[in-house]
Design goal:
It is a single chain. This protein is mainly α and 551 residues long. A four-stranded antiparallel sheet has the order 1-4-5-6, with no helix packed on it. Strands 2-3 form a two-stranded antiparallel sheet. A hairpin with a 5-residue loop joins strand 5 and strand 6.
């Protein structure tokens, strides 16, 4: 019954997120309100999901993002790069924006980058469209012929067409960049809270695993957008003069490249570097008993805190980042959105819904296996409908339970599932980045439409799944050895136990292996991967395996 109630709450939240019945951030509070009343779990358990080390990691990275926006470094970098190329071509402009968003999303998060870059892109496109309308007026003043009308109208249509492609490019590139790092997307952060996973998937390992998939998806997205929005396009009104005017306006308002911009850029790189070498630093910061003390949140918070200690050269008497700027620009709703996903995930575990769904997936596994491709199709389709947050918070716990039921390494299911939660290209509601560009596009003369996402995102999603399934299956073996037998660290001591029974599991010889409990009342019988029944369990387990499962 509790699992049914939890499923109902999940579907309710999913529908509210998709149709935006109330603001999506307030929808994220519904689990806190409903789960205790349905006796799924306690208020304390749900509330803890809204504030943990993952949220602190998001806060730390977001503070550096706000500092970047305050000093206008991304805008200056984009304009300088475009001016450096010398020739303003639509394909080059698209590549510059996508590269910038991809890199920034890697070292921060996709939502913040989309919020940061989209207004700049819209102002650039509005300037280009204004230039096109000036050209239209000039043409009309010199000639009133029908051919002139058609020709000048094409200038405006070209700008509007490219504007659609550019906004989609920002959303897609931010999603691809966020895919590459643990802090880049909400679905990646959801992976860390899956039981037993923290400590076995760290920032560096995930980057090595996900970077090839992210890069390939970025290139595919670029190719799709070029074919749909850039091919045959002559963007005559977005000239070097327009870019120079934008840069001059930037310099008039904020001055030339300053010490503040250099320091904020340095702190952003420092934050990325510290997170990358986190496993190495963590080895030296432990208790006398070897317990890990240092986490990613601490390392990310160090550069963020420095922003408030280092004085600004542009604003004497103030620090690089001030609290009023944080108060104005920090998206506190993002923390609720992430927390809502964590709360649903906690409800799945406490209600047993993850085990129920895991049993269904386990049946499929026993019938014919669940390859990477099927997992990725399931998660991708769910993401388009219910959003990244809902999909990750519901399917990841279920897949973790399914892996335990069939004694498969959990990473074999969880890694491709997490990646595919970022293949959110088809609908605006699939991911926050899509929502942001759709909302911001209202500032354009012709805003984005839902069909723009569908027509561009459908082929991109299909190709991404096809190539991603092969890439993930290859990289998860190279980086995580995910095809290895069910590991001891995944043992929970309730549904699975570690037994000292030698044998061959997945083609590898082992001296001990995981065993699935089949008698949950007495817990004296379990089943090995090959189907062998072990009885009594106590004869094959050590005392430490019983009191410290998964150690």
């Amino acid at each position: 019954p509790l699992a049914n109630d939890m499923l109902g709450v999940t579907l309710l939240c999913g529908c509210f997120w998709v149709f935006e019945v109330i603001p999506i951030y307030i929808t994220a509070l519904l689990p806190l309100v409903l789960l205790p009343f349905f006796k799924v779990t306690t208020t304390q358990n749900v509330a803890q999901a809204y504030w943990n080390q993952i949220q602190m990691l998001v806060v730390a990275t977001y503070l550096v993002d706000i500092a970047l926006e305050e000093v206008h470094l991304p805008k200056r970098a984009a304009l300088k790069l475009l001016l450096f190329t010398g020739v303003v071509q639509p394909a080059v402009l698209l590549a510059v924006f996508m590269s910038l968003c991809f890199l920034l999303s890697m070292i921060s998060n996709g939502i913040a980058v989309t919020l940061m870059v989209t207004p700049f892109a819209i102002s650039l496109m509005n300037a280009a469209e204004e230039s096109a309308r000036d050209a239209v007026a000039a043409q009309h003043s010199s000639s009133e012929s029908e051919s002139d009308d058609n020709g000048t109208d094409e200038l405006t249509k070209d700008v509007q067409r490219f504007s659609d492609g550019l906004l989609l490019a920002i959303a897609y590139a931010s999603t691809c960049g966020g895919m590459a790092t643990l802090t880049g997307s909400i679905s990646n952060e959801e992976l860390i809270i899956v039981p037993k996973i923290d400590g076995h998937v760290d920032y560096r390992l995930w980057l090595e695993y996900a970077m090839p998939v992210a890069l390939v998806t970025l290139v595919i997205a670029y190719g799709m957008l070029v074919l749909r929005y850039v091919k045959g396009l002559q963007l005559q009104t977005l000239t070097k003069e327009v870019l120079e005017y934008e840069y001059e306006e930037l310099c008039k308002e904020f001055g030339t490249f300053s010490r503040d911009e250099f320091l904020v850029g340095f702190l952003q790189i420092l934050q990325f570097f510290l997170l990358f070498i986190s496993p190495l630093i963590g080895k030296y910061v432990r208790t006398p008993y070897g317990e890990k003390l240092l986490g990613d949140s601490t390392l990310a918070a160090f550069p963020a805190a420095l922003l408030f200690f280092i004085p600004s050269s542009v604003r004497p008497g103030q620090s690089l980042l001030t609290w009023p700027a944080v108060h104005e620009k920090f998206d506190f709703g993002l923390l609720l959105l992430i927390g809502g996903g964590f709360a649903i995930s906690r409800g799945f575990t406490d209600s047993g819904l993850n085990i129920a769904l895991g049993d269904v997936i386990s049946t499929l596994c026993e019938a014919g296996g669940v390859p990477n491709l099927l997992i990725m199709v399931l998660c991708t389709l769910s993401t388009q409908i219910f959003s990244t947050v809902t999909t990750a918070s519901t399917l990841l716990p279920a897949l973790n339970a399914a892996a335990a039921n069939v004694l498969v390494n959990p990473l074999e299911f969880l890694l491709p599932a997490t990646i595919s939660c970022s293949f959110a290209f088809m609908l605006p509601t699939a991911t926050p980045a899509n929502v942001i560009v759709l909302a911001k596009s209202q500032d354009l003369p012709r805003p984005l439409r839902v069909r723009d996402f569908v027509f561009s995102g459908l082929p991109l999603t299909i190709i991404a799944i096809a190539i991603g399934s092969w890439l993930t299956s290859t990289m998860q073996v190279l980086v995580f050895d995910a095809n290895s037998p069910f590991p001891q660290w995944a043992i929970d001591g309730i549904n699975t136990v570690w037994v000292h029974v030698p044998g061959v599991v997945g083609g590898r010889e082992v001296t001990a292996q995981g065993c699935l409990i089949t008698d949950h009342i007495s817990q004296t019988t379990c089943r090995l991967k090959n189907g062998t029944t072990i009885f009594p369990v106590s004869n094959y387990t050590s005392y430490m395996d019983m009191v410290m499962p998964g150690s």
